[in-house]
Amino acid sequence: MAEKSFKYVILGGGVAAGYAAREFAKQGVHPGELAIISKEAVAPYERPALSKAYLFPEGAARLPGFHVCVGSGGERLLPEWYKEKGIELILSTEIVKADLPANTLVSATGETFKYQILIIATGSTVIKLTDFGVQGADAKNIFYLREIDDADKLVEAIKAKKNGKAVIVGGGYIGLELGAALKINNLDVSMVYPEPWCMPRLFTSGIAAFYEGYYANKGIKIIKGTVAVGFTSNSNGEVKEVQLKDGRVLEADIVVVGVGGRPLTALFKGQVEEEKGGIKTDAFFKTSVPTVYAVGDVATFPLKLYNELRRVEHVDHARKSAEQAVKAIKGLEKGQSVDEYDYLPYFYSRSFDLAWQFYGDNVGDTVLFGDNNPQSPKPKFGSYWIKDGKVVGAFLEGGSAEENQAIAKVAKLQPKAENLDALTKEGLAFACKI
């Protein structure tokens, strides 16, 4: 097999790869210097669309409409853009071996790729119920959502099982967004998760109560405190029932599982330092191997604001970490210094007519403010997290662009707030005056 050599290789074809490519183009990359190697068959796209607009019954998002970098208001990088810039897109190519000391990657078909600088942007893979040996979890019409192929299969099933019954396993991001998407497609939706409330890693019980109430008002059945322990199928091998640990059995034409992901770092085991489930990097996303950088989901990096190492799985960090790594790489070449990565954790979601944003850290005491009645025509409410007398995190549902900027500013500046009752009363006004 022929060997291909590049100055820079980005391994992975997700959001981070697209934003890194754009930054390379901005910084000045010569034709033939940069390659993106991806196991997906399409150029990098904005992955969040898959659980939202891609599943709409009308006016659904389709490629080429949501290639990067439209998700952050940037230009859309079509396959032709990469050609024009002399960036090689090596698609439908799975790398099965990485030899970091030899600066070499090997594909499943035996192709060899050499690089001078490698950016690991492999992202995460979904955790599957088959990984735990759940009985019947290999039945047809049990779906996971990570890539565009997964979304296409789900769209086909929604059409085939019109007005059918759907069961969502998991109460996190994917569970809530897909619960809404399937309901909008007129399916009868049940959600099942073991925790006492949805999105437990971020939401307080007070925040979660609003979303659970809102979803219930939309006709979504929420079953908490139990898990799926088995599936039965019909004679065609299609899922027909979900068996729960508490003994209940739910009918199902479609099952969607969203129980988390794991970073794709196995190729590099023993070759780079790891920490907190990811590849350890510095503030420029350089790993313990000087020619190798890691960005997005796989990177465990110094979060300057909190003076600790963290791994963040979110599109905002995927974009920004990719840009930071490229700035650092090009800065080194040009002998120019680059500022350390100074990230403010940011998460958001949209479903039905709802849209929330969160900034900062969800630690310490909490206060809930505003109108969180699920039946309100225009609900607007939020929370602050207070640690050591300072506001360290802020959440807002139904905020305007200016109000969302205000809560971001609060999380960044960490103003003092000794009196929690006063903070509750003041609510959003506290953020708007900072």
TrEMBL record:
Catalytic reactions of this protein: 2 monodehydro-L-ascorbate radical + NADH + H(+) = 2 L-ascorbate + NAD(+)
Domain Monodehydroascorbate reductase 3-like C-terminal: 344-431
GO-annotated cellular components: cytoplasm
Domain (FAD/NAD(P)-binding): residue spans on this chain: 6-322
Keyword S-adenosyl-L-methionine: no
SUPFAM superfamilies from the UniProt entry: FAD/NAD(P)-binding domain, FAD/NAD-linked reductases, dimerisation (C-terminal) domain
Record carries keyword Ribosomal protein: no
Enzyme Commission number, as recorded: 1.6.5.4
Pfam families: MDHAR3-like_C, Pyr_redox_2
Cofactor: FAD
The entry's keywords: FAD, Flavoprotein, NAD, NADP, Oxidoreductase, Redox-active center
GO molecular function: monodehydroascorbate reductase (NADH) activity
Function: Catalyzes the conversion of monodehydroascorbate to ascorbate, oxidizing NADH in the process.
Family indicated by similarity: Belongs to the FAD-dependent oxidoreductase family.
Full protein name: monodehydroascorbate reductase (NADH)
Organism: Gossypium hirsutum
